[in-house]
Amino acid sequence: MFTYILILLICILLSTIISRFIPSLSVPIVQIAIGSLIAIIHSEFSIELDPHTFLVMFIAPLLFRDGKNADKRSLWKQRRNILLMALALVIATVILVGLIINKLIPSISLPSAFALAAALSPTDYVAVSVLSKKISLPRKVLHLIEGEGLMNDASGLVSFKFALAAALTGTFSLFDATISFFIVSIGGIIAGLVLEHILIKFELWIRSLGMEDITVEILLQILTPFIIYLVSEEAFKVSGILAVVVAGMVYSLSSKKLKFRNARLNAVSENTWSVLAYVLNGLIFIIVGLQLPNIIKIAFYEATINNFEAIIDVLLITLSLLTLRYLWVLFMYKFGDNACKAEKRSVKFHAALLTSLSGVRGAVTLATVLSIPLALENGEPFPERTLILFLSVGVILTTLLITTFILPLFANKNIPKETDYLQIMNKAQIKVWANTINKLKLEIDNKKYINMIISEYKYRIHQLKRGNSYYKNWNRSSKEEKKWMLICFKKEIENTRKMLQENKIDESTAYFYEKSVRNKIKLMSSVEGFSLIFKEALMRISSLIFNIKKLRYILRGIENKKRSEQQLKDLAMKDLYSTNAKYLIQYVKSIITPENEETLKKIILYYQGVYWVASKPILGKASKYEKKKIQIKAMQLERNTIQSLFENGDITWNIASELRKNLNYIESDVLR
Fold first, then answer.
1. Phi, psi for 381 (deg, rounded to 5)
2. Of 44, 165, 474, 574, which has fewest CB within 10 angstroms of its CB?
3. Cα 502 from Cα 121, distance rounded (Å)
């Protein structure tokens, strides 16, 4: 088992790397492909997908975290739409799509068709949350599908339970099903509220004993979704899914009110849950991939299944799911949502289309259909079970492909400017930093360090204006910008080699600088990066020979000399960065034309930032202390500016909170 877990973790890491070099493939698609490949190569590598274990191990903690991080205000504003999607749409899907399935494939009985439609009704929140990070969706649409995904698992599972019971026994009571549905749903909400309050009281009691241990509190957080899900399902017989979602929201709201919360606990909690969610998300999709080959293989060799007709049925069922979803959302926006009635028709149609295409099915659907027993209560084989599994797998793959390749084509068009949260966030951040720079310029003392801090703020502003975050992110660059950046990187290498030939720099400085540029090229373009692997190998051999020559200096053990040599190397690297930055700025200015002006201005901004960073002096301990004092003062000015902008109505509460959070991270790094 340990070997299996280790392999799965390596595969998760590998999938992220592959997705980085092939951005058009989403991480879930890559992970499913890796899982399928493992199952094909090593048929004995199998993990049983027991539905109950799957929900408690994977879905419960992820939904707890998402409930904790959810935008409660936005969810409350769209509560009517979310309920219509998570409850009413599920029921409509079970009935209408079930009838369509029975009509397309008469061999699947009506109760079994309803069971399949119920399994296909809930969207996969895990897949949506992963894909939404790479797709620009309007915030209203994003909040709607997030709220729907948090709640529709419960309604889908309850509907499946009653439809499956009807298929197994041949009897069905609409009244009993309706009463049971409301008891399970409302009971799950109440259970989540009560159990989370009990656990919060327990945490307070632990702290009152003097056990103010962050490790213990984080462990209690991690155990919370498992405890709440199991108690709700096993003891109270209500929806554990709704219970953990509500518990996450209650925990988030209570942590803001209780005074014992501290910044370190919040930072550790967020980082821990981030890693845990990353691993669980990866495991879910790889496990799904492990199941696919066997299901497809069984269906392929099943004599009663016409493979071509089955594929057509998959496409028709997927089309019926998306069409119903589109019409439902359009009707909801037109008649049910007061906020949307005033919007243009084109905006409504576009929002409905995005919401429809975002309806990806995933692991919950597969886990649900795998719970279908092999035989009926009378001992006869469950009719068309293999075909039902194949149809489910087909719909999962089709919706994932649609969300990965078709949704981005529509998501990036006609999005109102006010919905671009990142753009609003960047503008607000630039305004805060610019205001901080103006206030720092009024300071009289410590001008040397103030000018250094001002330069750093200017560098951050230029990074944001280029479309990057405070830290470099080459993924956000356009194809045109990447093309020009690659040209400039090669120019850097050419100029470095020219300076080496002219004896203006030494061999070691040239090697390490060129290595840094080659790493940037790898980040920017996998093709260009791979083309330099051979050259890099030669350069490494050259470096090895160079280091062997230096061995006599190391053996001498003269510590002071080594330190002074390292300082000289650092200064040489900074000079080379500065020189190349000035050279590239002049080069780019010389090739600007009206066609490429907008792109090349971004390139110039990048090299101006490099020049400013390279121009910073290397500080000693005493100087670093003086600089840190100015940094702390500057961050206080930032806080004052954020509060002032919020009070004046220039930024919203959410933007102000995000700015403060980013500032807290930077401050913790400075004070380290």
1. -60, 145
2. 44
3. 70
How far apart (Å, rounded) are the C-alpha atoms in residues 505 and 495? 11
Q: Residue 366: what are its φ and ψ, rounded to 5°?
A: -65, -45
Cα separation of 242 and 239, whole Å? 6
Helices within 302-419 (DSSP H only): 307-331, 338-341, 345-357, 363-370, 385-401, 407-411
User: Helix, strand or coil for residue 63?
Assistant: helix
Q: Provide the H-helix boundaries in 442-558.
A: 447-465, 479-501, 507-524, 526-531, 533-549, 551-556
| Amino acid letter, residue 83 | L
Structure tokens, 19:
């997705």
Angle, vertex CA 27, rays to CA 21 and CA 30, nearest 5: 80
Q: How many CA atoms lie within 13 A of 76 on its CB side?
A: 5
What is the pLDDT, as a whole number, of residue 155?
Answer: 84
Q: At what angle do helices 240-257 and 214-230 cross, to 10 degrees?
A: 150
List phi, psi (to 5°) of 529.
-65, -45
Both tokens of residue 222?
């991690």
CB atoms within 10 A of CB 170: 12
Residue 195: strand, helix, or coil: helix
Whether 205 and 153 have beta carbons less than 8 Å apart is answered as no
| Chain-centre distance for alpha carbon 378 | 47
E strands in 237-298: none
Nearest to 191 by CA among 252, 157, 238: 238
> In angstroms, what CA-CA distances link 156 with 152, 315, 382?
6, 21, 21
The distance of Cα 83 from the centroid of its chain, to the nearest Å, equals 25
Cβ atoms of 391 and 310 within 8 Å: the answer is yes
pLDDT digits (tens, 9 = 90+) for 598-638: 888 878 877 877 787 776 665 454 466 777 888 888 888 88
CA distance 249 to 146: 14
Query: Residues of the chain with pLDDT > 90: what percent?
Result: 20
CATH architecture for segment(s) 48-419: Up-down Bundle (1.20)
Residue intervals of the chain classified under CATH 1.20.1530 are 48-419
Task: Centre a 10 Å sphere on the Cβ of residue 467 and count the other Cβ atoms it contains.
Answer: 16
Phi, psi at residue 426, to the nearest 5°?
A: -65, -40
Collect all residues with Cβ–Cβ distance below 8 Å to 408 and sequence separation of at least 6.
134, 135
Range in 394-403, 474-483, 569-578 with the lowest mean pLDDT: 474-483
Query: What DSSP letter does each residue of 423-458 carry, written as one string?
Result: HHHHHHHHHHHHHHHHHHHT--S-HHHHHHHHHHHH
pLDDT in tens, 177-199: 788 888 988 999 999 999 999 99
| Residues contacting residue 644 through CB under 8 Å, at least 6 positions apart | none
Q: What is the mean pLDDT of the chain?
A: 80
Residue 374 structure tokens: 């092999």
Q: What is d(CA 98, CA 147) in angstroms, rounded to the nearest whole number?
A: 24
Burial 396-413 (b: 16+ CB within 10 A, else e): bbbbbebbbeebbebbee
pLDDT score of 274 = 85
Q: Do 444 and 638 touch, CB atoms closer than 8 A?
A: no
pLDDT tens sequence across 163-174: 888 888 777 777
Asked if 287 and 363 touch (Cβ cutoff 8 Å), the reply is yes
The token pair at 95 is: 């009935």
Among 583, 643, 627, 641, CA closest to 608: 583
pLDDT of 600: 86
Cα torsion at 327, 333, 337, 339 (round to 10°)? 170
Alpha carbon distance 655, 428 (integer Å): 8
Contact status, residue 413 vs residue 346, Cβ threshold 8 Å: no
Question: With contact defined as beta carbons under 8 Å apart, do 369 and 116 qualify?
Answer: yes
